[in-house]
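Retro notes (design track)

What went well: tokenization of the new backbones is finally stable.
What didn't: we kept losing track of which sequence belonged to which structure.
Fix going forward: every design gets posted as structure first, then sequence, in one message. First example under the new rule, 145 residues:
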């Protein structure tokens, strides 16, 4: 059935629950998993770009630390469950597009991810990376709620 599962994570509690569920599935199927964290580049507008140098550098450090923490959760859980794994961090403006691209590049046959359950105005304004992946992916997507 599925042999290579992509696990995008943002490090949230919901993502960690999805990772755990997907790793359980991978163990059952004998599949490999690829953990993925997408870091968005800093976005800021100012009159003086010099003001942003420290902020941008700090943002990158914090974003990379968050990515490392999120991916280490996958590493630790996969090791504990005896599931073959690898991880990747990418930088992209559109996380959904990066998720689909990494899945294609790594020849994953399933994307397993969390839904953050945004509804109403928040869902309309912020959108959902999961919804965008569902809409644009030709690879099957398993959504954990």
């Amino acid at each position: 059935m599925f042999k290579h599962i992509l696990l995008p994570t943002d490090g949230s509690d919901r993502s960690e629950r999805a990772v755990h569920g997907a790793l359980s599935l991978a163990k059952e199927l004998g599949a490999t998993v690829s953990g993925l964290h997408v870091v968005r580049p800093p976005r800021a507008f100012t009159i003086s770009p010099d003001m942003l140098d420290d902020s941008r550098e700090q943002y990158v450090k914090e974003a990379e630390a968050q990515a490392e923490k999120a991916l280490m959760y996958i590493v630790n859980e996969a090791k504990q469950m005896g599931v073959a794994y690898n991880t990747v961090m990418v930088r992209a403006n559109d996380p959904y597009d990066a998720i689909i691209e990494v899945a294609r590049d790594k020849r994953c046959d399933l994307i397993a991810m969390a839904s953050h359950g945004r509804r109403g105005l928040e869902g309309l304004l912020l959108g959902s990376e999961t919804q965008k992946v569902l809409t644009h992916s030709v690879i099957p997507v398993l959504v954990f709620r």
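Added context from the reviewer: The first helix runs from residue 13 to 29.
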